[in-house]
Automatic annotation (TrEMBL), chain A:
Source domain of life: Bacteria
Name of this chain's protein: Response regulatory domain-containing protein
Organism: Jhaorihella thermophila
InterPro entries: CheY-like_superfamily
Taxonomy of the source species: Bacteria, Pseudomonadati, Pseudomonadota, Alphaproteobacteria, Rhodobacterales
From TrEMBL, chain B:
UniProt source species: Jhaorihella thermophila
One Gene Ontology MF term: phosphorelay sensor kinase activity
E.C. designation(s): 2.7.13.3
Subcellular location: Membrane
Alphabetized UniProt keyword annotations: Kinase, Membrane, Phosphoprotein, Transferase, Transmembrane, Transmembrane helix, Two-component regulatory system
Name of protein: histidine kinase
Domain HAMP stretches: 192-246
TM stretches of this protein: 171-191
Length: 60, 475
């Protein structure tokens, strides 16, 4: 279980993003979903953050 | 001269042949008539010589003795017996040129000057048969025993010779005219026959200028003549041209798939990502099957994802099928293009400005296939030119009688060869794709116009398609 985790999710695809957010929240994590990496940088600065996403998209 | 040059070769050469035949006939007739003249002149000279010689022998002694009565008597006998009564009139003069006797004393009285009647008379050696008169006057010295004792003036009847010459001339002219006519006709038809392959060839080239047709084997002249070689060369050219057309058509057909191929990696991504999401949702349903609200939300997600996949695959299918469908253009076609180009724009992190302002009815006269293909090719080209994080614009707006489509990008502008492919019908320079040429051909087929503009670092390609159908592609 992911209780207590804060996760920054970077994903530009709607369906993939929604499914991941839904599942991660069900598993107990706190998810911040951003479409682009640049906007996720702030979230990544938080020490316990994990990231998962489509790394083919470089910073805007 | 220009009027002659306008006559086709297939008529001109036979006509020339016929004219040459006529000229030949005229020259031949002239030659024969001249020969006849010479023959008649020689004959009359011989007659005159004999006549004068006979008179000289008969009259010589009497003239020498100045025996007028004997001279007169001899003349009368000569006039009565002359061959075929050719002699009409004869006068004899003495050494001093005084007439001593004449067959017709009224015309040449005794003692009158012989010069009065010898005027206009010819010497026997120069005699020629006149063309219109029936008599001939000759003057000759009267020679007896090697000495000139007087003069003789004689009029000879040459009516038979003149008539003979006329008859011969008429016959000759008639015969020559018939022969020349036959030869001219023969030459005309022979030449026409010989030139028939050229006539057929030029007609074939005229009739089938845009789709050359080969000359069938049966129509090729036999043997290894210039004509058969010409026809073989033409056939080879026609084959090459047809093959080239086929190749161009195949290339254009392939280009439809090429543009989809250029999109394929982006489109695969477009399918793959939602698929991953759908698998996630399915897994969530399995994992939380006892929580209805989770199942419902996952099912909604599944529906949305599947709808999206259906749209993408439908747009791809449409793009593949559109050449054959012949369907009318509609606003949905532009939405399809938006869907197809979207992933490619995202992949390159570009910004696409999309503005399509159409009413459904305005577009119906245009076929969907060529317009979609043109728009997609121009967008692909613009996206490739704009590069990473570039900008691409797409505008569609109809006015009263035209559909205006504009594609712009922030790329470096079209290269020379790309410009040639897009704007002209000339031969495609080697290298580079045929996408822009296909746009050119499609727009031309629709009677449209392409304009290229570059300003403020933007390349703008504007396409105007007439909304009145293809009745008058010139305007």
């Amino acid at each position: 279980m992911l209780n207590g985790f804060r996760i920054a999710l970077v994903e530009d695809d709607e369906i993939m993003g929604h499914s991941l957010v839904q599942r991660l929240e069900l598993e107990g994590a706190e998810v911040i979903w951003m479409k682009q990496v640049g906007r996720a940088i702030g979230a990544l600065r938080t020490p316990r953050a994990h990231r998962r996403g489509d790394l083919r998209h470089p910073p805007a | 001269m220009s009027a002659i040059l306008r006559i086709p070769l297939s008529i001109r050469v036979p006509l020339l042949t016929a004219l040459l035949m006529v000229a030949l006939g005229v020259v031949a007739s002239q030659q024969v008539l001249a020969a006849l003249d010479r023959l008649q002149d020689a004959r009359i000279r011989e007659i005159a010589r004999l006549h004068v010689e006979t008179l000289s022998v008969a009259l010589g002694p009497h003239v020498l003795r100045d025996d007028v009565w004997e001279v007169y008597d001899t003349l009368q006998r000569a006039a009565g017996e002359g061959e075929g009564r050719r002699m009409i009139f004869t006068a004899v003069a003495d050494e001093d040129g005084r007439v001593i006797a004449a067959t017709l004393p009224d015309r040449a009285p005794l003692d009158s000057s012989i010069a009065e009647i010898s005027d206009g008379a010819q010497p026997p050696a120069n005699l020629t048969v006149p063309s219109d008169e029936e008599t001939l006057r000759l003057v000759a010295p009267l020679v007896y025993q090697g000495r000139e004792v007087g003069q003789v003036v004689t009029e000879l009847d040459v009516a038979d010779l003149v008539a003979e010459r006329r008859r011969a001339g008429r016959l000759l002219l008639l015969g020559n005219a018939v022969a020349t006519g036959v030869l001219a006709l023969l030459g005309y038809f022979l030449m026409r026959r010989m030139l028939r392959p050229i006539t057929r060839l030029s007609q074939r080239m005229r009739d089938t200028s845009d789709q050359p047709e080969q000359v069938p084997e049966t129509e090729i002249p036999r043997g290894d003549t210039e004509l058969s070689r010409l026809v073989h060369t033409y056939n080879a050219m026609a084959r090459t041209l047809v093959a080239k057309r086929d190749a161009e058509r195949r290339l254009a057909e392939r280009e439809r798939f090429v543009s989809l191929g250029r999109l394929s990696s982006a489109l695969a991504h477009e399918i793959n990502n939602p698929l991953g999401g759908l698998l996630n949702a399915a897994d969530t349903i399995r994992e939380y099957a006892d929580r209805p609200e989770v199942v419902r939300r996952s099912a909604e997600l599944l529906t949305r994802g599947l709808n999206h996949l259906r749209d993408v695959s439908r747009a791809m299918l449409e793009q593949n099928r559109l050449d054959r469908s012949g369907a009318a253009l509609s606003a949905e076609d532009f939405e399809d293009i938006h869907l197809l180009i979207g992933p490619e724009i995202n992949r390159q992190a570009q910004r696409l400005s999309w503005k399509v302002e159409v009413t459904p009815t305005a577009l119906e006269v245009l076929p969907a296939g060529p317009v979609r293909q043109s728009a997609l090719n121009l967008l692909l080209n613009a996206s490739a030119a704009a590069g990473r994080q570039g900008r691409v614009w797409f505008r569609v707006a109809p006015d009263r009688d035209h559909l205006h489509m504009m594609v712009a990008d922030t790329g470096p502008g079209l290269s020379g060869s790309a410009r040639t492919r897009l704007l002209s019908s000339g031969p495609v320079p080697p290298g580079g794709g045929v996408g822009l040429r296909l746009v050119h051909d499609l727009v031309e087929e629709l009677g449209g116009v392409i304009q290229l503009d570059r300003r403020d670092g933007r390349t703008e390609i504007a396409v105007s398609l007439p909304l009145k159908g293809k009745e008058d592609p010139q305007c």
